[in-house]
Design brief:
About 55% of the residues lie in helices and about 5% in strands. The chain has eight helices and two strands; from the N terminus they run H-H-E-E-H-H-H-H-H-H. It has a two-stranded antiparallel ribbon with strand order 1-2. The longest helix has 14 residues. The protein is globular, with a radius of gyration of 16 Å.
Length: about 160
């Protein structure tokens, strides 16, 4: 988690906080894979984070999330859960449609005055309200029981 912050500060210093926390919470749920002889053979990143998903879904049901545009401009919302939910969708949703463009958005984050325009340009999103609806449908349909819990995660 903290290593992701260090990399973003170095290579994308103008990224908004929600992107920092979204990326950090996305990468915190990664796991080494081993073969039958216990030799490390790979790394799976961005596994479904049960705690972040459950947290976002609970906050959304309780009315504690904010509209996407407000959130992206830094006007409220939980940067850990809502940030994770947005980054997870960008990385995994729509069969990877947005994942190829995530790097270009991070690179061109800009300041909060430009974040919406940069987002729409990077991900080729014309209608932010339509995108938000699709994002929420995807995230709210996921089940936290299908996710991974990290050591120390109790929620």
């Amino acid at each position: 988690h903290e290593g992701t912050h260090q990399l973003l500060r170095k290579f994308a210093p103008s990224c908004p906080r929600w992107m920092h926390e979204g990326m950090a919470t996305y990468f915190e749920c990664s796991k080494f894979e081993f073969d039958a002889k216990h030799k490390r053979v790979g790394l799976r990143v961005g596994l479904l984070n049960a705690m972040r998903l459950g947290g976002f879904q609970g906050e959304h049901r309780a009315g504690r999330t904010v509209p996407l545009e407000t959130f992206m401009k830094g006007g409220g919302g939980n940067p850990y859960t809502q940030g994770w939910a947005l980054v997870y969708y960008l990385a995994k949703g729509k069969e990877g449609k947005y994942s190829r463009r995530l790097h270009s958005f991070v690179k061109e984050c800009g300041n909060s005055n430009q974040v919406i325009e940069n987002f729409q340009k990077a991900f080729r999103v014309r209608d932010l309200n339509k995108f938000e609806k699709e994002w929420l449908e995807y995230i709210l349909a996921l089940n936290p029981k299908d996710g991974v819990r990290l050591a120390g995660q109790h929620r």
